[in-house]
From TrEMBL:
InterPro entries xref list: SIS_dom_sf, SIS_GmhA/DiaA_subfam
Transmembrane segments: none
Gene: yraO_1
GO BP terms: carbohydrate derivative metabolic process
Domain of life: Bacteria
Record's protein name: DnaA initiator-associating protein DiaA
Amino acid sequence: MTIVALTGYDGGELAGLLGQQDVEIRIPSHRSARIQEMHMLTVNCLCDLIDNTLFPHQDD
């Protein structure tokens, strides 16, 4: 199973545990608030991508 991991700064312990097939989306910041903000934006973008892939002809 492929893992998509959202990490911050240096990736922490999780970065070293990911395999080649996994995806890490890292926010290179020291500020926790910035990392959380960008994680929320990333998750929203991923959800939009999934919605548009599954339901391509639906109007907003």
